[in-house]
Design brief:
By secondary structure, the protein is mainly alpha-helical. The protein is built from five helices and two strands; from the N terminus they run ααααβαβ.
């Protein structure tokens, strides 16, 4: 039988991962969620606290946070975990209505929001 680490140690390790630069943090926290259930429950809140949103992962993020257009259907636990949402790297990926839908889903826990850039080209 494999030995398991106490939850306090796992949380301490996750707190060190959170200090990594943003481009490494997301990947390492995601990898931590794959280790075991204990690691999953320790890393997921950190993973969603300040998600890194790009054109590549925007659609998957929206599907995770807003699985349904109807606000009262299938709320996810992840929407309350997002505290800082930076969508400033997105230009043409999000419409105003989709941005509004995301903000409605995140309104309970969201503390900081950077809007997507617009282009007049």
């Amino acid at each position: 039988m494999a030995a398991t680490l106490p939850p306090e140690i796992i949380l301490h390790i996750v707190s060190h991962i959170e200090r990594l630069p943003w481009h490494l943090r997301q990947r390492e926290l995601w990898a931590a969620t794959l280790v075991s259930r204990s690691w999953y429950f320790a890393a997921v809140p950190a993973l969603y606290r300040t998600p890194f949103i790009s054109s590549k992962n925007f659609t998957m993020f929206v599907r995770t946070i807003c699985p349904s257009i109807n606000a009262h259907i299938r709320r996810t636990k992840f929407s309350t975990m997002v505290k800082n949402l930076n969508m400033s790297s997105l230009i043409h990926d999000s419409s105003r209505s989709l941005t509004a839908r995301i903000l409605i889903r995140l309104k309970e826990g969201l503390e900081v929001f950077d809007a997507p850039r617009t282009s007049f080209a």
